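FORM 12-B: Structure-to-Sequence Request
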């Protein structure tokens, strides 16, 4: 194809790109930030899966092994070489799932032993240059009562990937358990093709326009004074992590209030967080991070890998602090930022000429996200399962809030909210008070909508 014909036909789809031995900008950001927090597990993701019914662990191993063979990202490691980070895709290999059989223990001892299994998973430290970068262990409570603990490194994972992974695992499991071969559709692309496409795209006209947009979007923000909720300059002491719940009835009221305001439940709850920060800091200009899928192309939908992106959302509040006005400001700013949702924060920081320092994000120090990626209700031959995400007990920001909406696949009708506060930012009682203030403010804004 001539250059003129190629230009006329538009950019190549991801599936037509060659593979790259680089890593994505998303992975690069993780690797660089993890160097600031060695051995902290900040980029581990933990999940419990509660299984009721007959579980064949050998069949589960075959299923997971099959999926690892399909997705190169699940057998890729990252090495730091003289010219930067490089990805190494390893041959297909067998995945082993360890089993802890607690069925002979009394119930209290079972719970204690399971807590110890979970603490081991929480303490797991991956090295991105070594396989494996995700593990599953099975804990047997009885003939038809199991729990699985999955722990993985975010270099190979995002929330969308988790749902995709378990959709494919259960399909493969049910096929093997029935004596058949899994029949999953061929993948349109692999992660290393995405890496090539991403780097080429951001080096071209799209990247130029995107970075110009982000510079303009953040132009008037005072980057030298990142808003914080504490005057403490040293982060020392125990990190505060805990979970709160928004009841089923209150979730309904939040949805109804959001509908009245013409916004999503996320925008309403994000706006409430903005109002609380504004009150706490006495600031009118706030920039808060939020995680977005960033799967902008159809080829990326079935792909397992780290593609999620964290965007800075800038809000300039005026004298009117009503929830209606704040929601309008937040939604407008969010829509602007979603014009270029896949530009990694690290590139924005470089373009703005900002310096990343240990333990500090130069653009924002608070993050509020919805973890609402699609996950399957686990249906294995002879068993069902419910998914329960867990804290990794390390905060990547001063305050990191993750809201997990009700979901039948999680077996929940209430919303769980993970609260993570950086070490030494606030005392434990102050952290709890902050979350309580948010809950009280949410009640107020819903009533006033």
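FORM 12-B RESPONSE
SEQUENCE OUT:
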């Amino acid at each position: 194809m001539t250059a003129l014909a190629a230009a006329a036909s538009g950019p190549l789809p991801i599936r037509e790109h060659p593979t790259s031995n680089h890593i994505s900008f998303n992975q690069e950001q993780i690797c660089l930030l993890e160097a600031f927090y060695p051995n902290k597990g900040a980029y581990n993701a933990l999940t419990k899966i509660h299984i009721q019914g007959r579980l064949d662990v050998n069949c589960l191993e075959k299923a997971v092994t099959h999926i690892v063979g399909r997705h190169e990202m699940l057998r890729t490691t990252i090495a730091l070489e003289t010219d930067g980070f490089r990805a190494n895709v390893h041959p297909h290999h067998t995945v082993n799932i360890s089993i802890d059989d607690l069925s002979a223990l009394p119930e209290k001892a079972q719970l204690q032993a399971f807590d110890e299994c979970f603490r081991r998973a929480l303490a797991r430290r991956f090295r991105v240059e070594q396989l494996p970068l995700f593990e599953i262990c099975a804990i047997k409570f009885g003939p038809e009562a199991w729990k699985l603990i999955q722990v993985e490194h975010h270099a190979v994972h995002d929330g969308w990937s988790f749902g995709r992974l378990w959709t494919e695992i259960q399909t493969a499991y049910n096929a093997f358990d029935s004596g058949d071969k899994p029949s999953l559709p061929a993948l349109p692309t692999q992660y290393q093709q995405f890496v090539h496409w991403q780097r080429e795209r951001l080096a071209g006209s799209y990247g130029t326009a995107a970075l110009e947009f982000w510079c303009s979007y953040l132009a008037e923000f005072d980057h030298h004074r990142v808003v914080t909720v504490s005057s403490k300059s040293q982060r020392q002491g125990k990190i505060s992590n805990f979970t709160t719940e928004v009841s089923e009835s209150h979730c309904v009221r939040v949805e109804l209030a959001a509908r009245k305001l013409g916004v999503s439940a996320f925008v309403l709850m994000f706006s409430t967080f903005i109002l609380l920060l504004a009150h706490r800091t006495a600031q009118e200009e706030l920039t808060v991070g939020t995680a977005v899928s960033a799967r902008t192309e159809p080829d990326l939908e079935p792909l397992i890998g780290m593609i999620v992106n964290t965007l800075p959302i800038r809000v300039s509040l005026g004298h009117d602090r009503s929830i209606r006005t704040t929601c309008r400001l937040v939604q407008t700013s969010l829509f602007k930022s979603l014009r270029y949702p896949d530009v990694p924060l690290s590139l924005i920081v470089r373009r703005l000429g900002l310096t990343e320092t240990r333990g500090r994000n130069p653009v924002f120090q608070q993050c509020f996200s919805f973890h609402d990626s699609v996950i399957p209700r686990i249906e294995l031959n002879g068993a069902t399962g419910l998914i329960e995400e867990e804290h990794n007990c390390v905060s990547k920001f001063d305050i990191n809030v993750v809201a997990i909406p009700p979901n039948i696949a999680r077996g929940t009708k209430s919303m769980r909210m993970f609260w993570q506060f950086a070490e030494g930012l606030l005392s434990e009682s102050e952290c709890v008070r902050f979350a309580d203030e948010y809950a009280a403010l949410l009640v107020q804004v819903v009533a006033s909508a």
